């Protein structure tokens, strides 16, 4: 087998001109994007065009060993193409070309004027219209399954979900937290048996580019589809909500603002979801929220902005509060979060 051409900002110009993907002799401006743990992401600009090249890494940049098949990049470009056909124009980037032997593909650049939702939230800019729009977008993706039977077949293989989420998040966290292991394992079994919608798998503020106009959200661009699969809508909801809870823990002075944004996201999502897809999602999403919150502390993909042990314990306590009450809804989990999350010694 030919060795894979591993892309860097230094060699990407030669790679592109050798493949006829940019005019030979041109010297593109290359910028490394991301800070992601599992891909090389390079923004390439020539006088005529701008695209972002993404290549899956053979080995993830985390402390733990985390096997994740490089072919996940094929799932990503396939899902981006599919959503490009099905969602309103401008909601996802367009696939420009694929280079499967290199485990790479190129997509159009985000239009100028956008901002990372994660960066806005981290800076304390918590705009509720963005949260509502994100809830609506997630429901629109999940709702596709109601009208399009092809989606179940196309994204049926859930290897990316097992390798990219269940193993490094849930199963690892269960091993490290024996007192709630049974609850987490039951939750993963439930998810594996639930095949209802196209799940994005990484629906987080980091993967949403926000466009504002007059203090209102005018549009969102969604990125990063390597974990997309046909499965359980509660996963995306719990995954996204976790990011608000983590920020509420990290910045206690802004706690209520983050919880309110989470509440708006959830309500808009729920109100936009096709009723046939609601199979107790207020409960299952809360359970998933508890699992993922703990996983961002004790799993293989640790949240980078919660470092100190007392703050980690606050997150652990909150996730246990959620996991140990089987009748807890998303709304109740958010109420639980909006109490002083005292940083204290391990409970
Ligand atoms: N098409 C794009 N246009 C502009 N920025 C992008 C584009 N794709 C990715 N990025 C930036 O690069 C970051 C990493 O890309 P992403 O696809 O999310 O990779 P990863 O899977 O490693 O998280 C994104 O969070 C975003 O800031
Ligand atoms: Mg990303």
Task: Give every kind of bound small molecule, once each.
Answer: adenosine-5'-diphosphate, magnesium ion
The average pLDDT is 95
Instruction: Order the strands across the largest sheet as they lie in space.
Output: 1-2-3-5-4
Largest sheet: 5 strands, antiparallel
Structural class: alpha+beta
SSE order, as H and E?
A: HEEEHEEEHHHHHEEEEHHHHH
How many beta strands in the DSSP annotation? 10
- Overall body shape: globular
Strand content: 5-15%
| End-to-end gap | 54 Å
Number of helices: 12
Stretches where pLDDT falls below 50 for ≥5 residues?
Answer: none
Radius of gyration: 20 Å
Helix percentage range: 40-55%
Q: What do these coordinates show?
A:
This protein has a 5-stranded antiparallel β-sheet with strand order 1-2-3-5-4, with helices on one face. The protein contains 12 helices and 10 strands. The N and C termini lie far apart (54 Å). The chain has helices at residues 12-18, 72-86, 117-122, 128-147, 150-154, 159-176, 178-192, 233-250, 255-272, 281-298, 309-323, 330-337; strands at 29-33, 39-45, 50-56, 95-99, 104-108, 115-116, 197-199, 208-213, 216-222, 229-231. β1 (29-33) and β2 (39-45) form a beta hairpin. 47% of the residues lie in helices and 14% in strands. It is α+β, with helices and mostly antiparallel strands. α4 runs parallel beside α9 and α8 (233-250) crosses α10 (281-298). Bound molecules: adenosine-5'-diphosphate (ADP) and magnesium ion. The site of adenosine-5'-diphosphate has 18 residues, from β2 and β3. Magnesium ion binds next to loops.
């Amino acid at each position: 087998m030919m060795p894979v051409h591993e892309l860097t900002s230094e060699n990407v110009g030669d790679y592109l001109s050798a493949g006829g993907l940019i005019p030979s002799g041109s010297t593109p401006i290359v910028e490394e994007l991301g800070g992601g743990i599992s891909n090389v992401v390079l923004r390439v600009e020539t006088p005529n065009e701008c695209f972002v090249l993404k290549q899956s890494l053979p080995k993830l940049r985390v402390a733990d060993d985390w096997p994740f098949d490089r072919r996940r990049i094929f799932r990503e470009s396939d899902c981006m193409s599919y959503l490009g056909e099905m969602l309103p124009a401008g909601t996802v980037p367009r696939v420009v070309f694929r280079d499967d032997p290199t485990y790479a593909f190129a997509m159009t650049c985000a239009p100028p004027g956008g901002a990372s939702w994660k960066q806005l939230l981290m800076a304390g800019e918590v705009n509720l219209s963005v949260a509502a729009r994100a809830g609506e977008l997630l429901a629109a993706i999940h709702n596709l399954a109601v009208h399009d039977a092809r989606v179940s077949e196309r994204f049926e293989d859930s290897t990316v979900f097992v390798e990219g989420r269940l193993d490094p998040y849930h199963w690892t966290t269960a091993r490290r937290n024996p007192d709630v292991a049974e609850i987490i394992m039951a939750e993963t079994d439930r998810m594996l048996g639930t095949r209802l919608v196209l799940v994005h798998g990484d629906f987080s503020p980091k993967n949403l580019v926000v466009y504002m106009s007059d203090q209102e959200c005018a549009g969102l661009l969604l990125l990063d589809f390597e974990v997309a699969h046909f499965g359980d809508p509660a996963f995306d909801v719990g995954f996204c909500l976790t990011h608000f809870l983590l920020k509420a823990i990290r910045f206690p002075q802004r706690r209520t603002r983050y919880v309110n944004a989470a509440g708006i996201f959830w309500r808009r999502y729920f109100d936009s979801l096709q009723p046939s897809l609601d199979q107790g999602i207020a409960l299952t999403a809360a359970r998933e929220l508890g699992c993922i919150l703990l996983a961002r502390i004790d799993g293989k993909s640790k949240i980078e902005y919660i470092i100190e042990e007392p703050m980690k314990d606050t997150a652990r306590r909150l996730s246990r509060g959620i996991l140990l009450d089987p009748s807890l809804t998303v709304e109740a989990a958010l109420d639980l979060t909006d109490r002083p999350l005292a940083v204290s010694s391990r409970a």
